[in-house]
Structure prediction request, 160 residues.
Amino acid sequence: MAQAPVLLTVGELATRGGVAVSALHYYESRGLIQSQRSGGNQRRYSKATLRRVAFIRAAQQLGVGLAEIGEALACLPAQRTPTKADWARLSTGWRAQIDARIAALQALRDRLDGCIGCGCLSLKACALYNPQDACAAQGSGAQRLLPPTAVAGQRRRRQA
Prediction:
């Protein structure tokens, strides 16, 4: 006689998956995970859902949005538990994107090392907010935030 599959309650899945119950409800509403309903209309999840929750959490830690996570999970087979090869194929597609994020974070870190404590607080000269001083020709201040008439008025006041 075949054993019935082990089903987890929403609380058990939340505890084992390291997420809040409300997060599981949200993931389900977005189609990232699926539940079955018990005779008492309570949610029940297969143990395979733990892998999906772990994948969602890992992807979110990497900065991947839920829409993109959903697209990736939609590629997994619905008729069977995903294998290691399925997960590897899924994560390989994100490799270039993750590498680009790592490079951008390293560049930001390296710029901050030289910037913290410099005291410039200058959007005109700051290499983080105004690379190559691109806004210097437009004048000082919040050139991109002010309407053109306000910028012209500032120039006239400086010249007077």
Summary: Residues 151 and 157 are 10 Å apart (CA to CA). The longest helix spans residues 95-115. The first strand starts at residue 7 and ends at 9. The mean pLDDT is 77.
